[in-house]
Specification:
Blueprint (H helix, E strand, L loop, with lengths): L3 E5 L2 H9 L7 H15 L9 E7 L6 E5 L17 E5 L5 E5 L9 H12 L4 H14 L1 E2 L2 H10 L8 H7 L12 E2 L2 H13 L2 H4 L2 H12 L6 H5 L4 E4 L1 E5 L2 E5 L6 H12 L9 H23 L3 H21 L4 E7 L4 E7 L45 E5 L4 E7 L3 H14 L5 H6 L3 E6 L2 E6 L11 E4 L9 E7 L5 E4 L7 E4 L3
Parallel strand pairs: 16-17
Antiparallel strand pairs: 1-11, 1-20, 2-3, 2-12, 3-8, 4-5, 6-7, 9-10, 10-13, 11-12, 13-14, 14-18, 15-16, 18-19
Helix pairs in contact: 1-2, 2-4, 4-7, 11-12, 11-13, 11-14, 12-13
Length: 506
């Protein structure tokens, strides 16, 4: 039997992934099963209405990214609808502005991506991978603490838009749901049944997608049936870099997350060397300032491939010399054969739209202001939108393999970079690398501010700082799984996100 290690955003997701080992599955089957479960059990963070990416690295093949990110809709939309949507402010991470409602919904691609991953590398029957999620949706899932906390910040602003969204955080009498409370989703169970029977076709060319498109169109949005019908997941060569004995494969352009992750790691070089010192933290703050500035240029650029090449070929060395002078869900799985799969999916902050009869929360990726520097609806219909997601796999020349990735919008790459530096430079165990306190550079009123958890020495940071009282979901949720050269399997779920992990028995 192939043994599997799985880390997911929810314990039920990890359990669903781990269970496939006994049924003859591999790491890809496990990651797919776990992802379906997260689409049920992590409301506010991800859903079947999300966009996403999968990084798969078989032991004897090149690493591949499956691009299933959200696409700009509106192929047949009335031009008068472009530029129209609802802007809100919510108290998340201090204060967050975003755009919600039907006009914020992009064409979701995550389902197409994981079906393509399964077709290329999976072993088990498709419907068997979805059955656990269907059962939990029908019986009810316990509201995770991380979702409940997010709803405290976003519920009134976002999740009051439609009755189906309200159902996720409010009881029928209008009182707020508590963490751990069971939430049945019969409409979502029915939708998953259609997907189990017909595959991704149910959404992209079947009645499920037609129902969603009609409702969105009727309520002023851009997403039409032809946007679903013309959507295709794409297989792309991974962006790769080598650091010492490690080789990292990650998300290529047009997504920006992988480029920024590589730039962060390259600019840090061999630091930190023994532990995170105050100068190391200060250096990382400067590195984030530079890399995140490049991220902004990537988002706005009309030729993202060329920009990425420039960043990785020349800008890293230039920035190294300059420095010398002073929301989302992720699932990772590896198996005993060395196959690794890393999947990140996101609904953004959530559109607040659950089309009646579907149970599917739709994304607001068109309305993520930080991903659309040129303004709302300025991207050409049919074009992939930008993303900071960076599902990744690393291998060493000794046979070590780690699948990892993160949730957390702009904090994805900073969280992953710190975990990677903890592992590669400091030699921390995967568990300690994920749990270690983090920091992140943000901008408040146009000025750089370093937010940080307890235990991060910011005394030398050249910017304003903002302290959190405890480790917190704001700093991202890194889920990681590894296979050691000895064959030992380890899975680690980030305590910030209340995730789950499991390793199948031999």
């Amino acid at each position: 039997m192939t043994r599997i290690a799985v880390a997911a955003g929810t314990p039920l997701g990890a359990d669903a992934g781990g269970a496939v080992a006994g049924a003859g599955g591999n790491a890809v089957d496990a990651a797919v099963a776990a992802t379906f479960m997260t689409w049920v059990c992590e409301p506010g963070l991800t859903s079947m209405g999300s966009g996403g990416f999968c990084c798969v690295w078989p032991p004897d093949e090149a690493a591949v990214t499956i691009d299933g990110f959200t696409e700009m809709p509106g192929r047949s939309a009335d031009p008068a609808r472009f530029g129209s949507a609802k802007r809100i402010t919510m108290p998340y991470g201090g204060q967050t502005d975003t755009i919600i409602g039907p006009g914020s919904v992009g064409t979701p691609g995550a389902l197409a991506a994981i079906e393509l991953v399964w077709r290329r590398w999976g072993r088990m029957p498709w419907d068997e991978l979805i059955q656990p999620a269907i059962a939990v949706a029908r019986a009810g899932f316990p509201l995770p603490v991380v979702s409940q906390r997010y709803f405290i910040a976003s519920g009134e602003a976002i999740y009051s838009e439609t009755p189906g969204a309200q159902h996720l955080y409010l009881r029928a009498d209008g009182t707020r749901r508590e963490a751990g409370e069971l939430i049945p989703m019969p409409d979502l169970a029915d939708a998953l049944e259609h997907v189990a029977a017909s595959g991704a076709e149910a959404l992209y060319r079947g009645d499920l997608g037609a129902t969603i498109a009609q409702w969105i169109t009727d309520h002023g949005g851009l997403l039409g049936r032809d946007d679903f019908q013309q959507y295709r997941a794409a297989a792309l060569p991974c962006l790769e870099t080598t650091t010492g004995r490690w080789r990292l494969a990650t998300n290529p352009p047009p997504a920006v997350g992988g480029v920024v992750l590589i730039e962060l790691a390259a600019l840090m070089g061999d630091r930190p060397r023994t532990k995170w010192t105050a100068p190391d933290v200060a250096l990382f703050a400067r590195v984030m300032e530079l890399a995140f500035g490049d991220r902004s240029r990537l988002r706005a650029d009309e030729d993202p491939h060329a920009t990425a090449a420039e960043l990785l070929d020349s800008a890293i060395e230039q920035r190294r010399r300059a420095l010398a002078s002073p929301s989302t869900s992720h699932t990772s799985a590896v198996d005993s054969d060395g196959l690794a799969c890393s999947i990140t999916t996101s609904t953004g902050y959530g559109s607040g739209v659950v089309v009646p009869g579907t149970g599917i929360m739709l994304n607001n990726v068109l309305g993520e202001i930080e991903l659309s520097p040129n303004g709302l609806h300025t991207t050409e219909p049919g074009r992939r939108l930008r993303s900071t997601m960076a599902p990744s796999v690393v291998r060493s020349d000794t046979g070590h393999v780690i699948a990892f990735g993160a949730a957390g919008a702009d904090r994805i790459t900073s969280a992953m970079a710190q975990v990677w530096l903890n592992t590669a430079n400091l030699g921390m165990s995967l568990q300690h690398a994920v749990a270690h306190p983090r920091c992140h550079l943000e901008w408040i009123d146009g000025e750089p501010v370093v937010a940080h958890e307890p235990g991060v020495d910011v005394s030398a940071v050249p910017f304003t700082t903002r302290a959190f009282d405890e480790i917190y979901m704001y700093f991202g949720g890194v889920q990681a799984a590894e296979r050691a050269p000895s064959g030992e399997l380890v899975a680690v779920a980030d305590p910030r996100r209340g995730g789950g992990s499991t390793v199948s028995e031999s």
